Amino acid sequence: MTTLILASASPARREVLRSAGVDPIVRVSDVDEDAVAAALPADTEPQVVVVELARAKAESVAAGLGALGADCVVVGCDSMLLVDGELQGKPHTPEVARTRWAEMAGRSADLITGHCVLRMRDGRIVGSSVDCSSTTVHFAKPEPEELDAYIATGEPLQVAGAFTLDGRGGWFVDRIDGDPSSVIGIGLPLLRRLLGDVGVGIAQLWSHSAG
Fold first, then answer.
1. pLDDT given for residue 52 in this prediction
2. Does pLDDT of 208 surpass 60?
3. Contacting residues for 97 by C-beta, under 8 A, at least 6 apart
């Protein structure tokens, strides 16, 4: 009976999985994302940065699973927005969110999501697979009062790129080129492939979702 462990506190990622028939067990890593990113060489490609962050989260959770590690897959993800060659994570403050929207309103940027899947048996990692997905997001131009109201909700402060596709931020996205689930934070097509790499079929997880 294989269980999927989601190494993320993101309710949006959990809902993507639940809507697709898998109810994961959530375990949040204690990874210092800034420290992991800072430890990488300065010329590290953006795709590698998000993959390494996803790997760090998955490995941190895997190390503390105990009995849950008997037969499971641990999935770690990390999303960042690539704007003018610069990776942007969570803005955290209204001021930073406003600055980022000033940069990206009416423009396009790439939402990159790193994925790491660890296959565990008897408490040991017996397989792993990593990759990232990239989706181009075409942003609208919110009116000043709309942006003020959006930032005041707090929603954009704790999400990569200061926007959501599946929340209030969706009003300000004209269209996307790529996988919508990846923009939300966990790409189902890519995750299915990575699970296959470690010998887990998605139907196994449908049959044995975690209640």
1. 96
2. no
3. 91, 151, 156, 157, 162
